[in-house]
Amino acid sequence: MSLAKPPSNMGHSMLDFVRDLQTTICDSFLSFENKNAFFSDTWTRPHHSGGGISCIFEDGSIFEKAGINISSIEGSFQSDTEKAMFLNLLSQLNHSTFDLDHATYFATGISLVCHPINPFIPTVHMNYRYFEIQSSDTTIWWFGGGCDLTPYFLDTTLITQFHSYLKLACDCLDRSYYPHFKDACDSYFFLPHRNEHRGIGGIFFDYLQSNTQTHYLDLVKSCGSTFLESYLPFIDAHKNTPFTHDHTQWQQYRRGRYVEFNLLHDRGTKFGLQTNGRIESIFMSLPKHVLWTYNEDLLTIHHLDLLEVIKSPKCWL
Amino acid sequence: MSLAKPPSNMGHSMLDFVRDLQTTICDSFLSFENKNAFFSDTWTRPHHSGGGISCIFEDGSIFEKAGINISSIEGSFQSDTEKAMFLNLLSQLNHSTFDLDHATYFATGISLVCHPINPFIPTVHMNYRYFEIQSSDTTIWWFGGGCDLTPYFLDTTLITQFHSYLKLACDCLDRSYYPHFKDACDSYFFLPHRNEHRGIGGIFFDYLQSNTQTHYLDLVKSCGSTFLESYLPFIDAHKNTPFTHDHTQWQQYRRGRYVEFNLLHDRGTKFGLQTNGRIESIFMSLPKHVLWTYNEDLLTIHHLDLLEVIKSPKCWL
């Protein structure tokens, strides 16, 4: 069995949700994508319990590379590095004195990154996860996740619509969520060395635990379920938009920022590498073809409107 | 004036050396490379003293991207991050109690990375640098540097010759250097998450200070001066070696490891980003076209001999 069996009711409910969402998204993508570009990869963690199912599209008709990954893992804290990392993490939740030596953890989530071929269709990232740490007398749990867009050219109508869907999904639970999560997304996906944001934002949250588990499960369900209706319109609108080598150069150049963010800053990548996670799954997020130039003048296209909104995030609604 | 004026005789001598070496290498490259692919970029550090001269080849006949960069910078330690970083560095030199509040630094060096178009010509990296920290009563100085090769296909004859030249250059100063620096190179250029070395090694050293300044200047001169004779044979031998799209795919895929190393592990990159260094110069080292695949089976070429030597470094001499 690749997916770890959840130790709690909430673990079960979350795992059911991410499995269903993975199936729904893959079925939807398979309705328009080349079936030969698709494969599913079930993996288990060596020396650990649990694993995941990665659904990949590579060299398709729409996606250059896309991954829809779910995982369900459990274990105890073994190395000192692992313990130090989790204590640091628990300090964010005011539990820095937790005894990790006799605790177990369980985590499940879905993680999606799509890098389309057509430069007019944005790259999209989505991730929803549930974490549980259990000692003899205490259980600590939290939810995290988000969804955000990295366009290469701006279709402001569809971007506004993308944010509307996310806002609607958040509003169902609490009207204060969207503005809060939107700001958190802008702050998180920031490359200080470029003084640029990774894309045009979306929502981002982590360490959610102050309300009930059911409340947050409803939140990630609401957000996860709006993914297709928020993203598919970009594919519908632009899958046949003509593009040239110059558009692709610009796309590949901007994708370099995606790699820089993920390798230099992304918490998920750091976490994965520090806990000896599965490399293929961690780096699933990296675009296929990427370009770094010393001399930006060699690019014939510079989409200045994009540069403006990634320098200072705007309110899309 | 872009290059900072050295505060010491050794600083002057080192700067003279790196300027001369840059000129020699650029002249040599220009003798066979497309002149339109070359440009020279003189820059100064905003809010700081000093700068550099970057000589770049991009989209040439031999080099997809190559940079030969020199810099000469000076200043005082301003931010707490900067001070903490340097104190950490000074602890390597047994000077962890140094008073950085009233100190100034000077650094000069040459840094070269060449990413050729032909996958049968290896990527090469070379860097020699001199550092000086001065307080009212003490001067701390050290030398660092090295040269190493990242092939995509193995030409064992030329690789052995490359190592011979480096050994010879080191032997002129001390016969214990090459084996020591070769091991240090293998240890340093290692990607733990891939369990792979970046390439087939070369030499690497840092914090050299136990002998005289003149001794180490002679060492970096000896090593730097052997660069062309150690690397040009790869270009001569393989500039006309036929290659296909499949060879290039393999090259671009392996280049991904180069990016991973430089963004995740390279001290120079970390140092540059943490000290608000010049992004174009720091990322000059990144290859132009890079590829990440989830499914390695999509690559039709897997050069297994290469994978073997980067898993466990061998002795080339």
Features:
10 helices; globular; alpha+beta; homodimer; 10 strands; oxygen-dependent coproporphyrinogen oxidase; 317 residues
CATH class identity of chain A: Alpha Beta
Q: Count interface residues per chain for the largest interface.
A: A-B, 32 and 32 residues
Largest sheet of chain A: 7 strands, antiparallel
- Helix/strand order of chain A, N-terminal first: HEEEHEEEHHEEEHHHHHEH
Query: How many helix segments of chain A?
Result: 10
Q: Which term fits the overall shape of chain A?
A: globular
- Gross CATH architecture of chain A: 3-Layer(aba) Sandwich
* Cα-atom radius of gyration of chain A: 19 Å
Oligomer state equals homodimer
Approximate strand percentage of chain A: 25-35%
Q: Which structural class do you get from the secondary structure elements of chain A?
A: alpha+beta
Q: Name the CATH superfamily assignment of chain A.
A: Coproporphyrinogen III oxidase, aerobic
For the secondary structure, the number of strands of chain A is 10
Task: Give an account of the 3D structure.
Two copies of one chain form a homodimer. With 317 residues, chain A is α+β, with helices and mostly antiparallel strands. Chain A has a single domain (9-311), classed as Coproporphyrinogen III oxidase, aerobic (oxygen-dependent coproporphyrinogen oxidase, 3-Layer(aba) Sandwich). Chain A is 41% helix and 26% strand. A seven-stranded antiparallel beta sheet of chain A has the order 1-2-3-4-5-6-9. The first copy, chain A, is globular, with a radius of gyration of 19 Å. Chain A starts with 8 loop residues before the first helix and ends in a 6-residue tail after the last helix. β10 (289-291) of chain A pairs antiparallel with β10 of chain B.
